[in-house]
Amino acid sequence: MWEFRHLKAFITVARLGSFTSAAKVLHISQPALTVQIQQFEEALSIRLFDRDTRSLQLTALALEYMPSFERLLADYEALSNSVASASRGAHGSIGIACLPSVSATILPLAVTRYRVQHPDVRIAIKDAVAQRVIEMVQSGDVHFGVGTFDADMPGIDYEHLFVDQMLLIFAAAHPLAGVKRVSIRRLMQEDLILTDRQSSIRKMIDRAFSAAGYLPEAAYEVTYISTALAFARAGLGVAILPASMTNDIGMLGLESRALGDETMVRRIGIVTRTKRSLSPLTEGFLRVLRECCPNLNASLP
Questions:
Q1: By the 8 A CB rule, do 12 and 1 touch?
Q2: pLDDT tens digits for 227-267?
Q3: Cα dihedral angle (205, 157, 299, 175), rounded to 10 degrees?
Q4: Domains defined for the chain, CATH in brackets
Q5: Contact criterion met (CB below 8 Å) for 169 and 229
Q6: Per residue in 116-130, pLDDT tens?
Q7: Distance of alpha carbon 170 from alpha carbon 176, whole angstroms
Q8: pTM (whole model) above 0.85
Q9: For residues 148 and 152, what is the distance between their CA atoms, to the nearest angstrom?
Q10: Which DSSP state fits 259?
Q11: Helices 106-117 & 280-298, crossing angle to 10 degrees?
């Protein structure tokens, strides 16, 4: 069995045409270099050099495979350098699964800050509903996720980041514009614009309504928050959306209200695979992400 030190020793000798010169470059003794070449020849079951007291030449077989040997060494050294750089946080990639509401608000800020120190790191963001975020983390498709907390998440560790409150969103001309706080009972009289049942928003809404003794029925069921806002702006009903996504609704001619005594909030946090360590690159990004969260919390009502 040969090792890469044997390959490097062989290529160094072949390039320099001298055991003495190669030993100096490799910082080993000439006898030690000779042993490495012999071990390499024995492992390959071929003779690599024709040598006498005056000359050193590659054998015909060694010459034939020399390009392959050189590519193999180059690939190994490139991989070693890449791994070493990644361990120092110099470059690499990070895969993130994230709720759309977070990827459109807090995540751009975190990425912007992170790339100041790590401009060469590639960041792949997969925005998805809560269940898909968990599935991508569980399968290893991403390094970590930003999603909601659920006690029934096998193989998942959760670290809390912030609480996102739900608000009622409607057109400025809507009758609810004259109401300060709205109860779930009052809300049942309105056409509701709700996200689909796979989203963490919808699941939280269903639980809150059920606890109050009601079953929410969607007049319009949508997938994207941008669609829900557009429907609300058109006066088609009342949307229930995260406060983190509604900072600029005034510019759209929309208003927001909180529910009365009932509270609808969702816990947002970092989700990772249990017993799986994260790379230094990912750990560094998570530190930045945690620092950005207080800014988001400060904007919540």
A1: no
A2: 999 999 999 999 999 887 777 787 788 998 887 655 688 88
A3: 0
A4: 4-87 (1.10.10.10), 92-161+268-298 (3.40.190.10), 163-265 (3.40.190.290)
A5: yes
A6: 988 888 999 999 888
A7: 8
A8: no
A9: 11
A10: B
A11: 140
